[in-house]
Amino acid sequence: MERMGRERWLDSMVLCRRDIHAHPEPGWLEYRTAALVASRLSALGYTVTTGKRACKSEARMGVPGAETIRQHEERALRDGVDPAWLEQMKGGHTAVVGVLRGAKPGPVVALRFDMDCVEVGESEEAGHPPRQLRFASDRPGLMHACGHDGHTAIGLGAAELIAERAGELAGEIRLLFQPAEEGCRGAKSMVEAGWLDGVNYFLCGHIGVRSRTLGEVVASVDGFLSTTKIDAVFRGKAAHAGESPQLGSNALLAACAAALHLHGIGRHGDGATRVNVGMLEGGSGRNVVPAEARMKLELRGETEALCEYMVRETSRILEAAAAMYGVTCEWETVGHGTGGEGDRSLIPQIEAECARMESVGSFVASMPIGASEDATWMLRRVREQGGRGVYMLFGSPLAAGHHQTTFDFDERVLGTAAELLVRLVYACPGWPEAPGTGASGGEE
Amino acid sequence: MERMGRERWLDSMVLCRRDIHAHPEPGWLEYRTAALVASRLSALGYTVTTGKRACKSEARMGVPGAETIRQHEERALRDGVDPAWLEQMKGGHTAVVGVLRGAKPGPVVALRFDMDCVEVGESEEAGHPPRQLRFASDRPGLMHACGHDGHTAIGLGAAELIAERAGELAGEIRLLFQPAEEGCRGAKSMVEAGWLDGVNYFLCGHIGVRSRTLGEVVASVDGFLSTTKIDAVFRGKAAHAGESPQLGSNALLAACAAALHLHGIGRHGDGATRVNVGMLEGGSGRNVVPAEARMKLELRGETEALCEYMVRETSRILEAAAAMYGVTCEWETVGHGTGGEGDRSLIPQIEAECARMESVGSFVASMPIGASEDATWMLRRVREQGGRGVYMLFGSPLAAGHHQTTFDFDERVLGTAAELLVRLVYACPGWPEAPGTGASGGEE
Amino acid sequence: MERMGRERWLDSMVLCRRDIHAHPEPGWLEYRTAALVASRLSALGYTVTTGKRACKSEARMGVPGAETIRQHEERALRDGVDPAWLEQMKGGHTAVVGVLRGAKPGPVVALRFDMDCVEVGESEEAGHPPRQLRFASDRPGLMHACGHDGHTAIGLGAAELIAERAGELAGEIRLLFQPAEEGCRGAKSMVEAGWLDGVNYFLCGHIGVRSRTLGEVVASVDGFLSTTKIDAVFRGKAAHAGESPQLGSNALLAACAAALHLHGIGRHGDGATRVNVGMLEGGSGRNVVPAEARMKLELRGETEALCEYMVRETSRILEAAAAMYGVTCEWETVGHGTGGEGDRSLIPQIEAECARMESVGSFVASMPIGASEDATWMLRRVREQGGRGVYMLFGSPLAAGHHQTTFDFDERVLGTAAELLVRLVYACPGWPEAPGTGASGGEE
Amino acid sequence: MERMGRERWLDSMVLCRRDIHAHPEPGWLEYRTAALVASRLSALGYTVTTGKRACKSEARMGVPGAETIRQHEERALRDGVDPAWLEQMKGGHTAVVGVLRGAKPGPVVALRFDMDCVEVGESEEAGHPPRQLRFASDRPGLMHACGHDGHTAIGLGAAELIAERAGELAGEIRLLFQPAEEGCRGAKSMVEAGWLDGVNYFLCGHIGVRSRTLGEVVASVDGFLSTTKIDAVFRGKAAHAGESPQLGSNALLAACAAALHLHGIGRHGDGATRVNVGMLEGGSGRNVVPAEARMKLELRGETEALCEYMVRETSRILEAAAAMYGVTCEWETVGHGTGGEGDRSLIPQIEAECARMESVGSFVASMPIGASEDATWMLRRVREQGGRGVYMLFGSPLAAGHHQTTFDFDERVLGTAAELLVRLVYACPGWPEAPGTGASGGEE
């Protein structure tokens, strides 16, 4: 790309990121963001799919209540979202897929970007860059504090470059813009809708993740923990705590007992597990025996089996804690990420492209992580079908850790990430087959 | 009173109650209500005191934060509250006292009425009378669900009748309109401001309290439990629950442990005790080790000593629960009601007046109660000084229990209560002295 | 009684008490004590019943295991207990009843004495009187630390005096020597065997109970708490705690959770309750997930209904605690005392007799108590049938509280108690009928 | 060795093992066993050290109380233990070291054997081989259920063969007979006494450990968990649970709370941890607020740092649990094993010797284990000084798992283990130096 074009391209990603940052949308409610993506992909010549064909309705997890959805749809209309896109997406079906087919045969390459924000109120500090530069969140309690605004901008930046060189394209490109990554709620619905079927190469990643040097690239993240997210509600009976406490059934104490006992789930000899009751609230008045309590928790395991062990233990404990206080407990799975790791055979290929890039300063082959991601569902489906994929990291110093109110990254990472992805897209038709898999690109 | 006058008087109390019901104000923020009371008393000829001279600033408990106070004061101005009154009351000093002195010597008689609402959202049901008759709360999450709207209306109704017959008055009448009865936060500040000093007869009471027949009067409630209300906040350290849970200090689990252990405080051989953690909430995100948790709790005891035992145990448990998780706990007393009971020597006097009233259908000498009230601080001060007082109940069927979203009472109770109070005010100069106390009215 | 006779009689009670003290026997295993009682009553002319006809086998609670019973029976034989009595009592049926009928008609009067020791090892201190005077317990871990040795001696002392004056007797005398009062295990079995049926007057009591002046008599104890004693065992699965903790099911943690939650059973608005997990043990090795845990607990309530509330809560908590850890819990009631109080109409009669006794120094009409006793089952049955009864206290200074290793009393209390009981036996044919009951003695 | 000599040698080990099995002795009380070892080594020509010079007194952990020690010493005398040895060992200093120096220079080689039994009552089943062959434990509640009887027999068998070929010996042989391996209490005291200083090669191991084929050898066990064993005692105040529960301070509930919270110690992001409250007991009577409770627990970590994290958490929790109930908690470390693994450079050397042995059927280079051992302290000290060591397994089918009442092994494993150790002793002077350590045997 000639220099002026590159400057303009970099600027457009920055503007895009800031626009999305200013209008953060939580999972399954990314109407404005998804419509922006869909319009842009469409304008660039991609065949765009959104709504229920982009994400299988029943496979979505942690979908907000009907009233919340309705309010966000109304707001989207007020904000000028194209009613045609909104109509397709309505009811919380905000996945977007853009497909471009090359003239020549070649592999199917899928890139995935996530679009949702987190439920954190953005810092009011004057020195916080998004506030200083006037693109801070306009929605109280919502913020792009995990960098998905950047991810979406990278996706659209890559989409533009790929489209520019569409004539050279071999095989098929699928750009997957995923809703609801936070809480591991969205990826599976795109897998179930079939978008990973037939994929030979799958590329995705994250900017930031611990503060790292700008220009550092990690080719493959290992050791994602399998995770299950659960919401539970305990319901008992209120009573006047002074006059007749015995008439009540204390839902709050049941929740407290559950929280303590969940954190006491025994260690497992086969590997690491985790449990966190992240949020709990209950009770209606100081002098009333609490009739209701709610908790949000997550479980993790080094393997899917370990995570299942944690879920079984949790199920028993929730029910026993309810029984302990004569109350009921209803709980549901609202998110699920599987374990997984990238395909190490792609590391040399990525290293080769990085070596050619001026903006890549250091290269790390692989790095373990103790966190969870639902892109693992996509990695798994691709691998099950003989394809290969990786989850990369694109280094940037961070103003504060992910999900914190002063989170921010160095916007120069957008160019590095988008350029590397585009390079990989054009390079992969030439890659050797995965050893032992018999997977071959290009034949379809 | 002639019939038409009585009808008008009854109607004016109903209108007053509905006006207050429509604009509920929580404890220490009763600007609109208190200003209404102050204006009305002033117009009737009472000498009105409000602000810091009506309630001792440091003796107030559970005062809301500065920002909340500011917002309510702004709202009060927008709602048309007289800035002169507001200026006196500002900073949460919403007590009002009206004094009327008779021409003749006589006892000092004090009547007490409470003005605050509770934090309950009023029922949206069309059939709920305040909604049907269009005087439901205009403030989300706030409601007069305990009848204090009625109490204030009774107070103003009584004020009017007493003023009408001011010429006959012997001694001194003090009408005490108390803020923040909910949570036992306000009475002590009026006691400390000296308004119960020198009082010979003290009359107060409640409408409703368990659904009772209209026209029933209980002359004296016994067995109030001494109570202390406490707010606690636990503060620890957040951490990513998947990658490095060991870096966190879990404030939520500390709160849960505290809640369970508080409910496990041992029984006391000397009498009844109570504990209730009525509200608890903590945590900021599902995958974050919770760094903060808050709880609201109350303790009670059949005697002040038993309540103190509960407070000592609570203090130790809160600190130990914090230590258990390496977090801190700060707690404060936000309310305190002492135990107490009425003076039984007044029962025959009340019975005598009731016997003369058409609207009183049945009379109960005394009734025990397992609840708490801070009028007990007033009863205690009066008694300490040789005076006599009672806490009465004025029967009304209730649509739902106190503090429930569909709470409502039969407005005819307003007339019964106000009339009885006025009768007692005019009767008490003639009552015999309290046996053995040597208390004598009228000499000051 | 002439003086020398009285001295001899007093001495014989002291000797009897010391003999029993030296050979303490726990509940249902009082073979030596019961045989001594049976022989003596028989020699005095009473018709003696023991074994299954004296206590209904199925109504006994907390009976020791078969092996323990066998060992005590063997020991009893070795100790020279008459095999004829042992044969009747075997299997833990150690109740003894002695009946004497007068020549004249008159009321049925029953007196009850308990015989069992407690599981406490007697003090080794040289200054402890039973050790100094060489009648300390010869059985490690067992001691008459509650005064039942004295009670049995009083019973035999009274039996002697009554028999001496048998010719004057009107009606029927039943002397009930009860096993297993500790843990409230024995009284009900004698009630179920019918020995309280037809009783007009029932007299029983306790020496000591808080340290009191020698010569003080309390005519009627009030406010016994209803109580239920429960043994629970939790069974899970052992596993190596280092290699594979997940293969275990932790019975000890289930027991610990149960203990904490039992102490957290909510207060009841209707009155006092109590809970105490008095003993808990579990686990087999430091590095083994505990597969078993056992606990002994007791529940109390001011009324039978309150005690039943505690039992219901306990039942739910034990099961929920087991479920919490995936283990089982089996529990059984091993003792039960009902609430109750004496008949106040007997107080003046008792006062009258006391007034005639030189050894009675002070008289207390009634006294509340926060403890439990299973003589309450007898009081209840007598009352249900129109009879009257009281539970008295016979004052003595105590060297240490009941159940402590240095417990001891002033042996002069034996004479006071026995004399008062005999006086009452002979006086009661002349008492007025119970008001309103229509109960009349002497007609059978 | 000629065949007949070998048969005799094998038989002598079997007889030795059975003799020790019949007289099991717990940690620090192995007077009979240690005296037997000391006498035998002395007879074979070893320089024998025992008592405080063999194990540093202050570095011993989990030493029994003075009274227990006294009883075992008396019993040892009654059992005919040589008073001269006993005098040296008294007070629980039962370590024995035998040293043999070769004529030629060469490396220092140390072999370690443990001697203590476990606190398990041996099975009464007639078919249990030690019972069938009449060498079952003669001490109730004590049993060699972990194979240390075999280890001691192997040590003495090896001692004999080494002594027979003393003329060929190069360097120095140290045979370490360690007390109190159970609970990881003894090894450190021998390390602190200096017996691992200067050691070039350290060999130790275990028979059995999961049921394995006879003749299988594992050259090096990896992944021992670092562990700390703790005993805690909570002391509060007794009170009558019915009359005045408030006067008590409940030590049992404090222990229960501690147990639950200890099992809730948070997972650590750096690796595996373990916690087990293996035993807990408290309380003195059903109706007494428990004044004392005791617990035995163990902590583990994949690394020493992780184990220290668990100890820090435990310390805080024990103190907080005590504070929660107003009781005290005293705790002490009664055992400690560090993590560790063998030196892999020795594996080929061991494989080479195994290949020459008829009785070795299969060879495993290394195997991870989730358990703990205190030989790790010896491995660590040897490694710190540049020496090398391994912990081997000698396969045997097991009748039941370690520490179970029917534990037994195939006695043929004794010959295999002893022969391999002797071969290694004579082979190691010829081994290559440890790579990179510069450690060289023989020069001293």
UniProtKB/TrEMBL annotation, chains A, B, C, D:
Gene3D superfamilies the record matches: Zn peptidases (3.40.630.10)
Peptidase M20 dimerisation domain ranges (all copies): 233-314
GO process annotations (BP): folic acid catabolic process
GO MF annotations in UniProt: dipeptidase activity; metal ion binding; para-aminobenzoyl-glutamate hydrolase activity
InterPro entries per record: Amidohydrolase, Bact_exopeptidase_dim_dom, Peptidase_M20, Peptidase_M20/M20A_hydrolases, Peptidase_M20_dimer
Cofactor(s) demanded: Mn(2+)
Binding site for Mn(2+): 146, 148, 182, 206, 403
Co-factor binding details: The Mn(2+) ion enhances activity.
Keyword field: Hydrolase, Manganese, Metal-binding
Any one annotated GO CC term: cytoplasm
PANTHER family membership: PEPTIDASE M20 (PTHR30575), PEPTIDASE M20 DIMERISATION DOMAIN-CONTAINING PROTEIN (PTHR30575:SF3)
Protein name: Amidohydrolase
Taxonomy of the source species: Bacteria, Bacillati, Bacillota, Bacilli, Bacillales
